[in-house]
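Format notes (please read before filing issues)

Several people have asked whether sequences and structure tokens are stored in separate files. They are not. Every record keeps both together, in the order shown below: the sequence lines, then the token lines. Line labels are part of the format and must not be stripped during preprocessing.
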Amino acid sequence: MVAFGEEERFSRRKHDKDSRSCAVAAAYCLSKAGITLAHVDEIAIAFNPAWPTPSDICTDAGLIAELRDPALFDHHRPRQVTVVEHHLAHAASVFHPGGFDEAAVLVVDGSGDGVSATLAHGTADGLKVLRQFPFSHSLGWFYETVAEYLGLGNWTSSGKLMGLAGYGNPDWYTLDFLTARASGSSRRS
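Then the structure lines:
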């Protein structure tokens, strides 16, 4: 790997939710590698813009222009981008650089291409999806709803709850919960 960057680090907007573009981050990575977009054989995106219709490629010129600002790439305009299923992209990004010959890979997020969780088997031959759960069963959306109920903001702020989790004492809460269940009481003593 030569370079990595997330668009939000360049735009200074968390999740950069107003744009699907990763143009500035991509331009940075190409610059670090000493190449231009014309040297790239294939560009992939980690979502299916045609969902729920299955698609392996996207030829929507407007979307492709939105994803990467032509001014940053010497006005090079690819005619298509490869579509990689959202959870498969997550799984590949951890399995392939992970250094394991074989592994179980679990991806859980709010939703991506209609899926909220994927279990895959990674081998030298690639990733094989074993099971997927639809977005209607999303633990991520449940988590975000709880975070919003607790007053931590909308869906973009659920990370605050994750950050606070490290300050808890899991032994005390687990022990208290187990004690209450064993005695048949739901009250704390």
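For reference, the curators noted about this record: The chain has a mean pLDDT of 82. The longest strand covers residues 103-112.
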